[in-house]
Write a structure and sequence with these properties.
2 helices, mainly beta, six-stranded mixed beta sheet
Length: 176
């Protein structure tokens, strides 16, 4: 994992944790299992990238348990400006501005109006944004997406799990 960035270029890491479930596991013991899934993990490096994007996808299995269906780590050659509705802008003052743009195919219903700048991060800060949704295309299912963002002069594999997030935003709705 990179420990420091090029002169004047902050590091950016985004970790997306997505959980998908059906009506069968909306409540009770199944919901308890779902809520035990971690929403932050070790950050795995991808070469010497300064812009790491890591994804963890979990889905309800026929057994009622939740399984990791996908784990991937990649890199962006330049800092991304949009990742699944997360809008990112590195500003001249050295901060990272985060906004949000709702996409019904990804985030489900109810619609959340496009959010402009919903938070600003200083170098060295770690933030978390959560959104959930209800989907229907024949069957009904639900999702929760957690976006962990680290921005700063240095990052390491424990950046999302070593301490509480400095900033947190929930765009979650009551879905039932």
């Amino acid at each position: 994992m990179p420990e420091s960035s090029s002169v004047g270029v902050p590091l950016l890491a985004i970790q997306i944790v997505s959980v998908t479930w059906t009506k069968v596991s909306r409540g009770g013991p199944a919901a308890a299992l779902r809520n035990r899934i971690p929403r932050a993990f070790l950050l795995h490096s991808h070469g010497k990238s300064l812009n790491v994007i890591q994804r963890h996808d979990y889905a309800e299995a026929s057994s009622g348990e939740f399984e990791c269906t996908s784990l991937s780590t990649g890199q962006a050659p330049i800092p991304p400006t949009s990742v699944e509705g997360l809008l990112l802008e590195q500003r001249q003052d050295g901060t990272l501005s985060i906004g949000f743009a709702w996409n019904g195919d990804v985030h489900g219903m109810p619609k959340r109006e496009r959010k402009g700048r919903i938070l600003a991060m200083l170098p060295g800060e770690v933030a978390q944004l959560r959104i959930n949704g209800r989907h229907s295309a024949g069957n009904q299912w639900y999702t929760q997406h957690t976006y962990n963002v680290a921005f700063g002069p240095s990052l390491h594999e424990n950046v999302f799990i070593e301490r509480p997030f400095e900033k947190g935003i929930s765009l979650e709705e009551h879905l039932f």
